[in-house]
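Can't paste images in this forum, so I'm doing it all in text. The chain is below; anyone willing to post the predicted structure tokens underneath?
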Amino acid sequence: MKQLISAALMIGTAAAALAEYPEKPVTIVVPFAAGGPTDKVARDLGDVLRKQLNQTVIIENVGGAGGTLGAAKVAKASPDGYTVLLHHIGMATAPALYRKLPYSVQNDFEYLGMINEVPMTLVGRSTLPASNYAELRKWIDANKGKINLANAGLGAASHLCGLLFQQAVAVDMTTVPYKGTAPAMTDLLGGQIDLMCDQTTNTTQQIEGGKVKAFAVTTLQRLTTPALAKLPTLDESGLKGFNVSIWHGLYAPKGTPKPVVDKLNAALRAALKDAEFIKREEALGAVVVTDSRLGGAEHKKFVEAEIAKWGPAIKAAGQYAD
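Text version of the structure:
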């Protein structure tokens, strides 16, 4: 009888949590500076989630340490569904990049679902003496030891893409880390930086405006976005098998009640069907996820596969943070 009463109380509590949630604003923590591509995804998603949750959605930028500070904040937050994390591929690469990670990617979060996949573009300063990838490659070979390559910090998407690009062309470049994508792009636009490999969500508008030179995309197939459709892939340009895309997912602290997790997942699924959100993502070259990774279990399996994929490459490069 006691067991039945206990079970009934648990069911009642869960039902109450589902019915009442959310009673106050929900905060999406973005582990990077404002103005970057992940921040844009979060703000676009937040606009739609407000309608789905019928509640205010706040975007909080907690940048630093390649996204680990923001992720750690959510891992340690109250598991009530009012603080969630929107993170990119850094969720999968942090275990290899950091010797002392202040959280467990696999054990300290409830996986809420994938959001999108974002191709990347190799871009350069507007004054670079190359107009296409073939000319760029000749310039790279002729300027070994003199080239600088920007990134948004250790573990950022631009850092990972730049790392693989250097390995692919077998040329070491001077990597210049910034505290976020926005300041890195600012210096690229100003001509202080030669190259950067970054997400289409951050480069498309600059390419359209002719403010940077675009040389190639990092996916195996060309993109259909008007501003990027004529760009060749690095694979077809000679770097066979080069394939990098950045994805984003949503997470809650471990122990968040299942009814709340389910409600967040339902809101996310509905948001990703919103026509305006899809339009915004497509305009930036991003592809909204529609497959089984919308579910928490498949989302987690995907991240675990990415951990296995990126770990060896990062360790081979010997790039770590304490």
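DSSP finds eleven helices and ten strands in the chain. The beta strands are 26-30, 57-61, 83-87, 109-125, 148-151, 174-177, 195-199, 212-217, 245-253, 287-288.
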